[in-house]
Specification:
The chain is of the alpha+beta class. It is 61% helix and 13% strand. It has ten helices and five strands. It has helices spanning 10-43, 50-80, 86-97, 99-114, 119-136, 156-164, 166-170, 175-204, 257-261, 267-275; strands at 209-217, 220-229, 232-238, 244-250, 253-255. The chain has a five-stranded antiparallel beta sheet. Strand 3 (232-238) and strand 4 (244-250) form a beta hairpin. Residues 174-201 form a coiled coil. Keywords: Coiled coil, Plasmid.
C-alpha cells in the first residue's frame, strides 16, 4: 500500500509502468526465445522475405495448430461417442483455428447495428450456436428469453448463414459471403429503421419537445431532440445505430448518472428516459 503523502511524480509513474512493460516483454521473450532462435539459426535472412516467412514460420505454426485441434476433436469424439464427417472436421477445425477472424466479422456488425455494449457477448453466443449446428446438423434458434447476449435484430438463420460463409471468404470465395451478408444486412436495416422511427414518434409526441435537428458528430450524423421545461433542458442524441445518449441541465448545472441514480432527475425527464423505446 502506498504511504500517505508519498510524492509520486508523473515521471516516476511513467518509469514504473515502463519497467512493468519490460518485465512482461522479457517473460514473453524467454518463453518463445528458443523457438525464435531455431528459426533464425536455420533460415537466417530468408525470413526477411514475407513469402518465405509465411512458408517457413507461419505455415509451420499452422501445422502445429492443426495437429493439436485434430487431436482435441478426436478425443472429444471418443469421450462423447461421436463420429464427425470430414466436412464437420473441416468446419470445426476452421472455427478453432480462425476464431478471432470469425469473431471480428460478427462483432463489427453487432457494434454497427446494436451498439458496442454486449457486442462481444452476442458474438460468442452466435459462434456457440454455429458450433452446435456443425455438430448436430440441426438448425439453431435464438433463445426466446430476452437476455443481453441474444441478438435483438436479425434472425438466427440469417446470422448463422453469414457465419457459415466466412470460411469460404477466407480462402477467396466471396459469393456465399456476399449473398448471406446482403440478406442479413437487409434484416438488420429493417429492424434498425423501425426502431428509429418508433423512437422518433415517441420523442416528438412529448409536450416538452422543442425541436429536432441533424448534426455531424465525428464520423456520423446524429439526430438531436431538444426538450425544455422551465430551466430544465434535456437533449437526447439518437445515433445512426439507434443508440441514444442524453445531456440534462438544470438551472445551468449539468446533471449526470450520479444524480439520476440518486433520484434527482425531474419527473418528466425520468418518464421520457424510462419509456423511450
Amino acid at each position: 500500500m502506498m504511504e500517505k503523502g508519498l510524492n509520486v511524480t508523473p515521471e516516476t509513474m511513467e518509469e514504473v509502468i515502463e519497467a512493468i512493460g519490460q518485465a512482461f516483454r522479457r517473460e514473453a521473450e524467454e518463453e518463445h526465445a528458443e523457438s525464435c532462435a531455431k528459426y533464425i539459426e536455420k533460415y537466417g535472412k530468408q525470413l526477411l522475405d514475407p513469402e518465405a516467412f509465411h512458408a517457413l514460420v507461419s505455415f509451420d505454426s499452422e501445422e502445429m495448430q492443426e495437429l493439436l485441434i485434430l487431436n482435441l476433436l478426436n478425443g472429444e469424439q471418443i469421450v462423447k461417442g461421436l463420429q464427425y464427417t470430414d466436412e464437420q472436421l473441416y468446419q470445426l477445425e476452421f472455427l478453432y483455428k480462425y476464431y478471432h477472424y470469425m469473431e471480428n466479422h460478427l462483432d463489427k456488425l453487432f457494434e454497427r447495428y446494436e451498439g458496442v455494449p454486449f457486442s462481444t457477448d452476442k458474438t460468442r453466443y452466435v459462434l456457440r450456436l454455429y458450433k452446435n449446428e456443425i455438430i448436430t446438423g440441426e438448425q439453431q434458434l435464438f433463445s426466446e428469453e430476452k437476455e443481453f447476449w441474444v441478438p435483438k435484430a436479425g434472425s438466427a438463420e440469417a446470422w448463422l448463414s453469414f457465419t457459415k460463409s466466412l470460411p469460404g471468404l477466407y480462402v477467396g470465395d466471396a459469393d456465399d459471403y456476399l449473398k448471406s451478408r446482403e440478406v442479413l444486412i437487409k434484416e438488420l436495416e429493417e429492424t434498425l429503421q423501425e426502431k428509429k422511427e418508433t423512437q422518433h414518434r415517441f420523442l416528438t409526441s412529448s409536450p416538452y419537445c422543442q425541436k429536432q435537428d441533424e448534426q455531424k458528430k465525428k464520423r456520423e450524423v446524429v439526430t438531436v431532440y431538444s426538450f425544455k421545461h422551465g430551466e430544465e433542458i434535456l437533449d437526447i442524441i439518437q445515433k445512426e445505430n439507434g443508440e441514444v445518449r442524453y445531456t440534462l441541465t438544470v438551472d445551468g448545472k449539468r446533471y449526470s448518472r450520479k444524480e439520476q441514480k440518486e433520484g434527482l432527475f425531474p419527473d418528466w425527464v425520468t418518464t421520457i428516459l424510462n419509456e423511450l423505446p
